[in-house]
Specification:
mainly alpha, single chain, Protein-Tyrosine Phosphatase, Chain A, 11 helices
Length: 165
């Protein structure tokens, strides 16, 4: 961020820094993501809020991990991730005036290639999302089923069940 503030970093360098960060997320933050999945599988987990300053990098990958655990396809995960670009607040106030708007755009955008970089690491080490969830993050099949039961539902069936009660 200092490089963005003092204009010593250009768009290419900013993009490279972000790609490098995403390459490290699956391993460097594995214990945090494992903890998140464990917490979400507990009986008193909901409601839950996952957030950070920007909400697109570590948090964006955290939500990608939750979606992986639910069996959501990477295509849908990426679609969800890039929605960040529409719904995220403006963070330019954190960087001060005089920041290069193009560099700011790179730093604050959720780009598919960032998430794809993390997926490439997962594929290279674990082979696929489910092995990453199971072996890389240690989520048991039982806890994964609990997550699915709590987070996946048929809205029509939920309404019908509620009416019948």
């Amino acid at each position: 961020m200092q490089g963005v503030r003092d204009r010593s970093i250009d768009c290419g360098a900013a993009n490279a820094v972000l790609l490098e960060m995403y390459l490290h997320l699956p391993q460097a933050y594995a214990s945090y993501y494992a903890n998140l999945l464990d917490l979400l599988s507990r009986p008193d987990a909901f409601p839950a809020l996952v957030h950070c300053t920007s909400g697109k990098d570590r948090t964006g990958f955290a939500i990608a991990v939750v979606l992986m655990a639910l069996g959501v396809s990477r295509e849908v995960i990426v679609e969800d991730y890039i929605l960040t670009n529409q719904y995220r607040r403006d963070l330019s106030f954190m960087l001060g005036k005089g920041v290069d708007p193009e560099v700011l755009k790179v730093v604050t955008s959720a780009r598919p290639e960032f998430l794809q970089a993390a997926f490439a690491v997962i594929d290279g080490i674990w082979g696929d999302d489910q092995r990453f969830i199971r072996e890389g993050l240690g989520l048991s099949a039982e806890k994964q089923e609990v997550l699915k039961e709590r987070l996946l539902s048929d809205p029509v069936q939920s309404v019908v069940s509620g009416v019948q009660s």
